[in-house]
Amino acid sequence: FTEYLVDQLEVTDLGARWDGMLTYHPSCHLSRGMQIDRQPRALLANVKGVQLVDLPHEEECCGFGGIFSMEHPELSAEWLKRKISNLEETTSPTLVVAEAGCLMHIAGGLHRQKKPQQVMHIAEILNHR
């Protein structure tokens, strides 16, 4: 989605507005597997009113990894705990992702731990006015 917007349509500003703090989680699949990292960051940088906060240890996997979370549930749970702890360090109420698997995994972990943070897909942020 972000690759299409930025590289094909050459669009980085969709007129989105977000008054507040956001933190971006680059998924393993997109950033390592497909080399898509610049595109979501370029789009988020053009959201008016946003305060983008770096996620500590952002390069670390959230633990979903497709089938990984099913084959290695203990490791997956530990990685997820670390990801949530890193999100809490930012004090950002919202984590932005560009990958559905990460979204479900992290949102589920936040819900189970009864944490107040939310996870949103980048498309939701880019559509926000």
Question: In words, what does this structure look like?
Answer:
The chain has 129 residues and is an alpha/beta fold. The chain contains seven helices and four strands. Strand 3 (94-97), helix 6 (100-112) and strand 4 form a beta-alpha-beta unit. Helix 5 crosses helix 6 (100-112). The longest helix is centred in the middle third of the chain and has 18 residues, at 73-90. The two termini are 19 Å apart. The model has no long low-confidence stretch (mean pLDDT 96).
Q: In brief, what are we looking at here?
A:
The chain is α/β, with parallel strands linked by helices and 129 residues long.
Offer a few descriptive terms.
about 130 residues, about 45% helix, 4 strands, four-stranded parallel beta sheet, alpha/beta
Main beta sheet strand tally, sense and closure? 4 strands, parallel
Per DSSP, what share of the residues sits in E-state strands of 2 or more residues? 15-25%
The total count of strands amounts to 4
General shape? globular
Radius of gyration: 14 Å
Q: Level of helix content?
A: 40-55%
Output the helix-strand order. Answer: HEHHEHHEHEH
The strands making up the biggest β-sheet line up spatially as: 2-1-3-4
Class based on secondary structure composition and strand pairing: alpha/beta
